[in-house]
Amino acid sequence: MRTLIVDSDPADCKLLQPILADFGECRTAHSGNEAITVVRKALSDGEPFELITIDIALSDMDGTEALFEIRDMEEEWEREGAVIIMAATLADRAAIATAYSAGCDDYVLKPFDGKGIIKRLKNSKLRNRLLTAGGANKITASPIDMVIDRFNSGKIDIPSLPQLSIRLNEMAKKGLDFKEIANLLKQDMSITAKIISMSNSSYYGAVTKIKTVDQAISRLGLSVTKQYVDALCNRKFFATASKKYSKVTEELWAHSLYCAVTAEVVAKFLKLDLKEDAFTMGLLHDVGKMVLLQISAELEARGKFEGEVDQEELFESIDTYHNKFGAKVLKKWNFNDEYVQIAKYHDDLGNQYPVSRDLQVIHFANLFAKQMANEPLDHQTGARVEDAESTRLLGITPDMMDKIKELVDRQMSVYG
């Protein structure tokens, strides 16, 4: 693997070089202009770099400027882009966000931590190359590598969605029918009881007490009934028998439900005519995370992983791969392309053009849900929902944001 380290500080170069040299030829450049010259020659010689690290604060230019130039040269030479990792300090947060928009793949913080750099490389598109590399820092297959490899080879099956949810979605494609939904719900008494309870909540200003599912559907309406049934069915899917993984799956369920409710509120508030159901898209946008967690928990319980599993590393890997994996899962479940695109791009609009209204809504709802719950923001851009591209595309103002939160909180109260 051909690597270039771009850093104006010789001491930092000396720290990085032994870590990356284990994986192949490693060169250094001590300024942005030198890096541009070296990369241009490598491209013209037909020997492009596969990995480039760039310090955000170079002596002669901003590291992001060098990044722009390199990406432009790669496009000019019609070469596959190198994996570019920015080196930064905690004070460079805003610059990191700009670097992502310019085309970097990841970042590492100074002072350098060898283990942290190896983690970043394991989560990059170079991981297959690095799995066979030698040296003291040899990268071994992670649990997620094993899960994905087994999935791609057909050695493991993905969990199934609840049958009631599947049948309800099939009905929705043909057009919701009052009698059909009522008959379907009567086959599951626990769902029926919860739907009746929801219809009697203060959210609907209940005056007379509802006693039958038919009355409940009449009060809620077909569309809202479907949403509640989807949520109740998928609540069981977003669970695991493993105590070790229970906390993170509960958090994932809470986020997915909040995202679903937010998406539905936004679609109604803005009077949007979406291609698909906003609530269901919000509920399933992170399905890749849930399935990866379930499979990982099962394989670990069966002793299929070597040694002790580093949960922090596992969750970081799941966060990295869940988009593409979720898209594959939804394809296997025969969801249409809009759902697949939602799973794939819900936290990265930059990879999708044009950006559909459906995707704009879920991207906004995903960020909104994270921010309202004080979850860590997007690990790539650190974007706040107020500054997000989806917020701009949807025309959502700060005043509208306050109203959306009020409506979401009110609707979330139904779920307890």
Strand content range? 5-15%
Oligomer: single chain
Radius of gyration: 24 Å
| Number of helices in the DSSP assignment | 20
In the CATH hierarchy, the architecture of the largest domain is: Orthogonal Bundle
Biggest pleated-sheet summary:
5 strands, parallel
Describe this structure in words.
With 416 residues, this protein is mainly alpha-helical. It has two domains: 3-139, Rossmann fold; 163-175 and 238-415, Hypothetical protein af1432. The chain contains 20 helices and five strands. The protein has helices spanning 10-21, 32-44, 63-76, 93-102, 114-122, 127-131, 143-152, 163-174, 178-185, 189-199, 213-220, 222-237, 243-269, 278-284, 287-301, 311-332, 337-345, 357-372, 389-394, 398-412; strands at residues 3-6, 26-29, 51-55, 83-88, 106-109. The protein has a five-stranded parallel sheet, with helices on both faces. Strand 4, helix 4 and strand 5 (106-109) form a beta-alpha-beta unit. Helix 11 packs across helix 12, helix 13 (243-269) runs antiparallel to helix 15 (287-301) and helix 13 crosses helix 18. The longest helix has 27 residues, at 243-269. It is elongated, with a radius of gyration of 24 Å. The N and C termini lie far apart (53 Å).
